[in-house]
Design goal:
mainly alpha, Collagenase (Catalytic Domain), 5 helices
Length: 132
């Protein structure tokens, strides 16, 4: 991964300032842990906590833990025309939104959440381009 996990952490940190705010949203905890895990590991955790043993892109726990699978990010990034680094950032943002209380369990909620994560993603990338 170009830039490594420290670069990803910086990018996700930048994205926090673009997250929505409001009384209905859960504040982010003071510490958020983001881990990059293998397809086997995320599949095991997906099975244990969500009753689906298949590998997935990102799993978020309310206490502030986000697990991301780079292998899935790379594959899905190709499908979406994004680099793995862009896809990893998007998954980090997705996890942050889940911690705030956003849900993607229904089609309507999924559409709203995906629109919000795309907005935050675009604002983050725009900020990064200005900083160069």
């Amino acid at each position: 991964m170009a830039g490594g996990t420290k670069a990803l952490a910086r990018r996700i940190q930048t994205s926090i300032e673009f997250l929505p705010s409001g009384p209905k949203l859960t504040p982010l905890p003071p510490r958020i842990e983001i881990s990059l895990v293998s397809a086997a590991e995320i599949g095991r955790i997906h099975g244990e906590f969500l009753d689906d043993p298949t590998p997935t892109d990102v799993i978020t726990f309310d206490h502030g833990e986000i697990l991301i699978c780079p292998l899935v990010a790379e594959a899905q990034g190709k499908d979406h025309g994004r680099t793995m680094e862009e896809e990893l950032l998007l998954y980090g943002i997705h996890g942050l939104l889940h911690i705030q209380g956003w849900s993607d369990l229904t089609p309507k909620k999924r559409t709203l959440m995906h629109a919000e994560q795309e907005r935050v993603f675009a604002a983050t990338v725009k900020r990064e381009k200005k900083a160069r």
